[in-house]
Amino acid sequence: xxxxxxxxxxxxxKPVENVxxxxxxxxxxxxxxxxxxxxAENGNQEAFAAADRVAKALGATRIVEFPEAKRARxxxxxxTTTEGAALHLDRLRTRAAEFDPAVRDRLMAGAMIPAAWxxxxxxxxxxxxxxxxxxxxxxxxxxxxxxxCRAPKLGQSQMTIAGTTMxxxxxxxxxxxxxxxxxLPVVTVPVWSDGECLPIGVQIxxxxxxxxxxxxxxxxxxxxGVAKAPVAMLRT
Length: 236
Description:
The chain is an alpha/beta fold. It has a domain at 19-66 and 130-223: Amidase signature (AS) domain (Amidase signature (AS) enzymes, Alpha-Beta Complex), CATH 3.90.1300.10. The chain has helices spanning 45-58, 69-94, 101-111, 115-135, 168-171, 177-180, 211-223; strands at 32-35, 62-64, 141-145, 158-161, 164-167, 186-191, 200-205. The chain has a five-stranded mixed β-sheet with strand order 2-1-3-7-6. A two-stranded antiparallel sheet has the order 4-5. A hairpin with a 2-residue loop joins strand 4 and strand 5. The protein is globular and about 55 Å long. The mean pLDDT is 90. It is an enzyme of class 3 (hydrolase). It comes from Methylocella tundrae. InterPro entries: Amidase, Amidase_dom, AS_sf.
């Protein structure tokens, strides 16, 4: 989906680009970095192994780092929680019982966050965005795990990360939230290990407005069989 929406005054007025015509270019000639620091911590080894497999397939060895990524994730969590609360505030007041309890609690918490915290998070977001822009002056795309573990099963509420049991909903976005909240284009490709019935996602992150780059890399990985999307078979 591309192009400006006449019904959304806040969207950018960017023209439609024929990205499909560029996919055959593959990843050749692109400067590809591998996210280190925060993105190489706080996860299970299987997540890092998936990212490493993608990096090796692309010949990527350069380690790059998004500064203050942990703080970025916290700011993203705060902003999205308050925005969600603002969107649903009237329904929370009049139809609270109709919400999933976990969702309702999160939205109600967002409605009570001080405005000063939100303002500080928004200031940090702009700083982090500038830092990301500087990083992409040195590389064209960055690889990073998409989740700290293999894809959870439907209805799964808990997961174990680095020996610690935690809630799936609150922590599955450990690696995606710092990126998505500054609007960078991302393609997450599913990577499968031999004998496993569920995949692990690896993010291909690009600079602003360069969807063509991340899609080229994703297409290249699909062409060589590193990324694939077979039907998941759950063990009974």
